[in-house]
């Protein structure tokens, strides 16, 4: 069984348990659900230069624990201070040591930068959970869903006011996507089975994506020259976790990377 299949199986079990513990009706009464309007991830990715979606992630299946001690609110505040366009928060507990509490905690400290729930979304219940802890957007992994599920979950998210970043890995994942519906597409540079990273994978796939769709390149990014190349090829945003998580001050690392990329772009102009 592939790691993705394993995570999806675990998630299915987890969702079943959660549904029993906390019914939807209860989630719908949480203050973030009733009193807060979600921010737009789509808008956050429309800046003229490269947009940065900065990730808060303690561990991953490929790398084990990446950051210890792990202080989610402090990390997020540092990202905000240094101009992150959006923040991605891992909430998957078994393989990434994430939690919904982490997202709620970050929301309590970050008001006006969009937060994306990064998890393995397979059930509309998880979208309500996302709203209830103060998320503005969710990741939908096309590789883990069929076309019907993807369309359904995307619509349910939209109805709740949540933007979706739809993630693909391979060219044939695009067959599942209705581009009248999907406005931001992420390509994961990391093969979830072999964990190998290939940045050119995202560029190849974006060639087949309509021009009006926002493009995000995800995973394995840390080299400023690569960011410049991605931007020159029409990529609007990057999703970066590990590189920032390994830095003492993640926001400072964002600043440094952005400045190094600017410098390279200027030298080339
Ligand atoms: O830490 P990295 O290599 O910068 O990658 C971040 C992000 O792209 C990665 O965490 C990710 C991309 N898609 C996912 C789906 C599920 C879990 C995690 C991910």
Automatic annotation (TrEMBL):
Domain of life (superkingdom): Bacteria
Entry keyword set: Amino-acid biosynthesis, Aromatic amino acid biosynthesis, Decarboxylase, Lyase, Tryptophan biosynthesis
Record domain Indole-3-glycerol phosphate synthase: where: 4-256
Lineage: Bacteria, Pseudomonadati, Rhodothermota, Rhodothermia, Rhodothermales
Family: Belongs to the TrpC family.
NCBIfam families referenced in this protein's UniProt entry, alphabetically: PRK00278.2-4
Protein encoded by which gene: trpC
Catalysis: reaction(s): 1-(2-carboxyphenylamino)-1-deoxy-D-ribulose 5-phosphate + H(+) = (1S,2R)-1-C-(indol-3-yl)glycerol 3-phosphate + CO2 + H2O
Organism: Longibacter salinarum
Annotated InterPro entries: Aldolase_TIM (IPR013785), Indole-3-glycerol_P_synth (IPR045186), Indole-3-glycerol_P_synth_dom (IPR013798), Indole-3-GlycerolPSynthase_CS (IPR001468), RibuloseP-bd_barrel (IPR011060)
Biological processes, Gene Ontology terms: L-tryptophan biosynthetic process
Pathway: Amino-acid biosynthesis; L-tryptophan biosynthesis; L-tryptophan from chorismate: step 4/5
Signal peptide: none
Enzyme's top EC category: lyase
Protein name (database record): Indole-3-glycerol phosphate synthase
Keyword Lyase assigned: yes
GO molecular function, one term: indole-3-glycerol-phosphate synthase activity
EC number: 4.1.1.48
TM region(s), chain numbering: none
């Amino acid at each position: 069984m592939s790691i993705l299949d394993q995570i999806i199986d675990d998630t299915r079990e987890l969702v079943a348990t959660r549904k029993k513990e906390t019914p939807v009706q209860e989630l719908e009464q949480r203050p973030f659900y009733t009193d807060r309007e979600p921010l737009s991830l789509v808008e956050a990715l429309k800046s003229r230069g490269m947009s940065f979606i900065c990730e808060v992630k303690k561990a991953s299946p490929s790398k084990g624990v990446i950051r210890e001690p792990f202080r989610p609110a402090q990390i997020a505040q540092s990202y905000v201070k240094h101009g992150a366009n959006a923040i991605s928060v891992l909430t998957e507990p078994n393989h990434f040591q994430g939690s919904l509490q982490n997202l709620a905690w970050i929301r309590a400290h970050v008001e006006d930068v969009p937060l994306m729930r990064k998890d393995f979304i397979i059930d509309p219940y998880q979208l309500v959970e996302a709203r209830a802890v103060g998320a503005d957007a969710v990741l939908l992994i096309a590789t883990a869903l069929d076309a019907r599920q993807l369309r359904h979950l995307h619509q349910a998210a939209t109805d709740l006011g949540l933007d979706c970043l739809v993630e693909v890995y391979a060219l044939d994942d695009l067959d599942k996507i209705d581009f009248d519906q999907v406005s931001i597409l992420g390509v994961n540079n990391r093969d979830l089975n072999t964990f190998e990273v290939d940045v050119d994978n995202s560029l190849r796939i974006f060639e087949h994506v309509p021009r009006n769709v926002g493009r995000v390149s995800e995973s394995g990014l840390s080299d400023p020259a690569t960011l410049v190349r991605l931007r020159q090829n029409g990529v609007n945003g990057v999703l970066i976790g590990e590189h920032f998580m390994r830095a003492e001050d993640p926001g400072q690392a964002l600043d440094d990377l952005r400045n190094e990329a600017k410098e390279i772009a200027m030298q080339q102009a």
